[in-house]
Amino acid sequence: MADKGTLSVTHLAGPLLAASVDLVAFVSFGDPTRDATFKSADQALGGVLSDVAKSESFEGKVGQSITVHTHGRIPARRVVVVGAGPRSEFGTPSIRDLAATVTQLANKASASALAFLVPALGANREAQVIQHVAEGVHLGVYKFGRYLTGDDHKRPMALKSFGLVTDAAPKAGKKPTVTHTKLVAAAILRGETIAFAINHARDLINEPAAVITPSALAADAMAIAKKHKGTVTATILDAKKCAELGMGMFLAVGQGSVQEAKFIHLTYKPAKKPKKKVAFIGKGVTFDSGGYSIKPSAAMEDMKVDMSGAAAVISALDAIATIGADIEVHAVAACCENLVSGHAYKLGDVLTSMDGTTVEINNTDAEGRLTLGDAITYVRAKIQPDEMFDFATLTGACMVALGPYTAGVMSDHEALLKSWMSASERTGEDMWRLPLNGRLREQLKSPIADMRNTGDRFGGAITAGLFLKTFAKDTPWVHVDIAGPASVSSARPSQPKGGTGFAVATMVEYATRR
Ligand code: BES
Ligand code: MN
Ligand code: ZN
């Protein structure tokens, strides 16, 4: 669960070793004995730090850390040094992981306050580094523990205050300037807001499908609108309203479930006239059994994550409204469950989409593109955005192509693609372009309808993208297949197993830093 309220990130005036906290921490890039902070800490502790580093073979590598007791030599009771690996390999995910590791070590040591020296990576990157540290702190304490009944999981976190020291050794008596303090505070607030949104998305993804139904997602969206009364509004369309709009593809996917399909539309409007309109569309299949093209049990086991795109766009809009943006932002999600029942859609059915295109179903497990196709048409008709993006756990083929940690990005709008990719580079979310090769469209030909919903074995991520392109038409559009990175089966310090909240950070970056 999110830790909102119990742990806060603050700015501390240096120097680090004078901080009156339970624990002080700093990082080491490789050989610690060549590091100035390490040397002065070692000196203050009478050489204990270098002794321990030697005996524990600490070489500043990623994953390494040493903890020493100070025995009253400095105000803090413990000093922690965390390995960061070589500077050349150091990126945004490493900063989040380091901050997460420090937070976890402090909690384990029952420290309630700590001081952490923000690694200096160049003056022009300071605000960004601070933001990413603040993100890592909250991402690192995330745990989905609602259903764990042991006492361990109920105990409150020891750590209450994560203090950032931004200057290793300020000149005697020198205090940070007011502007510097303000910039640091803004970076912290930004980082915390983004992390809370990511953790919220993680909660929505990790909750079982029995809890996070389309109606539950709609309620979550309404709560966000209520929280940002004045800038955010929520529109929820029920199945009847969607039928009136002609969303034949979306409704067909949901018709096999007793859970009613819900179409979610959140709008953020800035106080001033918006510079442009952007729509973020998320796949919201709250459980994907595959339908009559049923998935084998092992493949179905994790299919509560199939609403990760919806969770991401809803959570990102929350953070965007908190931070504020000069553009109008829409979050849209067509939410339903893909189940088997006497009411379910079948292979061979021909569906009519909201834009009139007819689609023959040759695989009921290629359901995401059906829900998204109508969502895209809705966005074009009702919002008429300058740009639209969709985020979808769409194809296993994308994971075959790029592995489990990288999203596949498809677009034929070069300029929009470029600015999206550069936002993703700033956030450290791993994305890679796949070609929207129009020749593969031949796989989507149907003898009895305008097209069919599924291609053959090769290029499965791309044929899904081409299917969506049919509905995106000439609106500048980027498709992001997050089937891999939306949830992970191996953890890293800032990212436990399960839902990751992937794409939230890049959406916020894109919308709030133009
Ligand atoms: N939700 C799945 C894709 C998926 C797979 C997401 C693994 C996360 C992890 C999607 O609806 C699906 O079933 N896709 C099919 C498409 C196929 C039938 C063309 C797939 O990838 O097998
Ligand atoms: Mn499916
Ligand atoms: Zn699916």
Can you describe this structure in just a few lines?
Helix content is 36%, strand content 19%. The protein is α/β, with parallel strands linked by helices. The strands form four sheets. Strands 7-8-10-9-13-17-14-15 form an eight-stranded mixed beta sheet, with helices on both faces. Strands 1-6-5-2-4-3 form a six-stranded mixed beta sheet, sandwiched between helices. Strands 11-12-16 form a three-stranded mixed beta sheet.
Brief descriptors of the model:
single chain; 514 residues; alpha/beta; Leucine Aminopeptidase, subunit E, domain 1; Aminopeptidase; eight-stranded mixed sheet; 15 helices; elongated; binds ligand BES; binds manganese (II) ion; binds zinc ion
Query: What's the overall average pLDDT, rounded?
Result: 95
- Ligands (ions, cofactors included): ligand BES, manganese (II) ion, zinc ion
- Broad CATH class of the largest domain: Alpha Beta
Q: Tell me, what's the shape?
A: elongated
**Cα Rg:** 25 Å
- Indicate the CATH architecture of the largest domain: 3-Layer(aba) Sandwich
Number of strands: 19
Can you tell me the CATH topology of the largest domain? Answer: Aminopeptidase
State the helical fraction: 25-40%
**Number of domain modules:** 2
Give me the secondary-structure category. alpha/beta
Major β-sheet strand ordering: 7-8-10-9-13-17-14-15
Termini Cα gap: 31 Å
CATH superfamily of the largest domain: Zn peptidases
Account of the 3D structure:
- The protein has two domains: 187 residues, Leucine Aminopeptidase, subunit E, domain 1 (3-Layer(aba) Sandwich); 306 residues, Aminopeptidase, CATH 3.40.630.10.
- The protein is 36% helix and 19% strand.
- It is of the alpha/beta class.
- The strands form four sheets. An eight-stranded mixed sheet has the order 7-8-10-9-13-17-14-15, with helices on both faces. A six-stranded mixed sheet has the order 1-6-5-2-4-3, with helices on both faces. Strands 11-12-16 form a three-stranded mixed sheet.
- It has 15 helices and 19 strands.
- The site of ligand BES has 15 residues, from α12.
